[in-house]
Design a protein that fits this description.
The protein is of the alpha/beta class and about 400 residues long. The protein has 16 helices and twelve strands. It has two domains: about 200 residues, 3-Layer(aba) Sandwich (Aspartate Aminotransferase, domain 2); about 130 residues, Aspartate Aminotransferase, domain 1, CATH 3.90.1150.10.
């Protein structure tokens, strides 16, 4: 019996994004299951010894080991590739495994990377600490300053690396302009799209060569599992990235892949509702705190650029209080509905103090350079009724002296 499959690009290429998020990449077994099957296996068997040899030689299609291929993981990879508009994708165990692999697989001693200063703390550790250990030179620039990227180019520049919106400052990078500069320099543009997801922003349509994700965030969207992904051309995935992942092993478990597949089915719905909620919550908070950075509001200095690149402002923003860490912690402690958590992308509203959590591993000087001050807080607006979130902040702000 012929079964429907989402792996045939001639079928899926005409599907719209919401359809891809539900059906893209689906490969049904002979049982004809509606939900994607969960293949919990580390290895595979062969009918003949010659079949094993042929598969390892690349002469026969089929699975060899779940560090390389797994049916459940492959469905997730195909779905993310389709959603992103990429030729191929490799799933990883975590978002940071994805970022690390996307960079190290193509950089060698003597190469040069240009990175944006505003980034997740662990990403700055990669550019500031890990890469230099292996003889890879790095230059950090203000990602908002397009000319700064051009000035940073050297003869040995191989990669541009940035996230937009940036975590947690919400800096916006002009994706098209910066990717053009990278290509003029013969470099590859790697974009972390975790805050926006392909629902709000598709960097490859603006020139990005590689898009990396922490699928832990909005793609799962309910705080259940860790996952990451790297999407790009088939040549990059198969000839550059695959050898790195095959031999270093940052592979995603089939169960986590299955959970993220389920999360992707509601990604479009969740993202759009959380964006709507974020606008309402941010509009309220903007009148109560000294400073707030949300790309979805006209007060954001790069609002026009953000809305040109993104369909909406996203569910995350940062705000600042004047009383430093003491007042920031007081506000967090006064919250009754919103949880204190360093995670983002959850269906629950979560808030954290980046200087003492996500960016605590960076020096005070680097945090200051990035704009991560002691008075900064980052908020992920969830799926609760926004009026309840606003009411919680109303009472918490009063208790914190705001």
């Amino acid at each position: 019996m012929k079964r429907k499959t989402g792996q045939d690009r001639s079928v899926t290429r005409n599907w719209r994004p919401a359809t891809i998020a539900v059906r893209g990449g689906t490969a049904r077994s002979e049982w004809g299951e509606t939900s994607e099957a969960l293949f919990l296996t580390s290895g595979y068997t062969y009918d003949k010894a010659a079949d094993a040899a042929a598969r390892f030689a690349g002469e026969q299609k089929g699975m060899t080991y779940s560090r390389l291929q797994n049916p459940t993981v492959e469905m997730l990879e195909e779905r993310i590739a389709l959603m992103e508009g990429a030729e191929a994708c490799r799933a990883m165990a975590t978002g940071m495994a994805a970022m690390t692999a996307a960079l190290l697989c193509q950089l060698s001693a003597g190469d040069h990377l240009v990175g944006a200063r505003a980034a997740f703390g662990s990403c700055r550790w990669l550019t500031d600490t890990l890469l230099p250990r292996f003889g890879i030179e790095t230059t950090i620039v203000d990602g908002r300053d397009t000319d700064a990227w051009k000035r940073a180019v050297k003869p040995n520049t191989k990669v541009f690396f940035f996230e937009t919106p940036a975590n947690p400052t919400m800096d916006i990078v002009d994706v098209r302009a910066v990717c053009d500069i990278a290509h003029d320099a013969g470099a590859v543009a790697v974009v972390d799209n975790a805050f926006a997801t392909p629902v709000l922003q598709r960097p490859m349509e603006m020139g990005a060569d590689i898009v990396a994700y922490s699928a832990t965030k909005m793609m799962d969207g309910q705080g259940r599992v860790l996952a990451g992904a790297v999407a790009g051309s088939e040549e990059f995935i198969e000839k550059t990235l695959l050898a790195f992942t095959r031999n270093t092993g940052p592979n995603l478990s089939p169960f986590n892949a299955w959970v993220v597949l389920k999360g992707l089915e509601t990604l479009d719905l969740r993202m759009r509702r959380q964006c709507e909620n974020a606008v309402k919550v941010a509009s309220f908070l903007e009148s109560r705190v000294p400073r707030l950075n949300y790309p979805g509001l006209p007060s954001h200095p790069q609002h026009e650029l953000a809305m040109r690149q993104m369909e909406a402002g996203g569910p995350i923003f940062s705000l600042y209080v004047d009383g430093g860490r003491a007042q920031a912690h007081a506000l967090l402690d006064a919250l009754e509905l919103v949880d204190i958590s360093n995670n983002i992308g959850d269906s629950r509203s979560l808030m954290t103090h980046p200087a003492s959590t996500t960016h605590a591993g960076l020096s005070p000087e680097v945090r200051e350079e990035m704009g991560v001050t002691e008075g900064m807080l980052r908020l992920n607006v969830g799926l609760e009724d926004p009026e309840d979130v606003i009411a919680d902040f109303d009472q918490a702000l009063a208790k914190a002296g705001l």
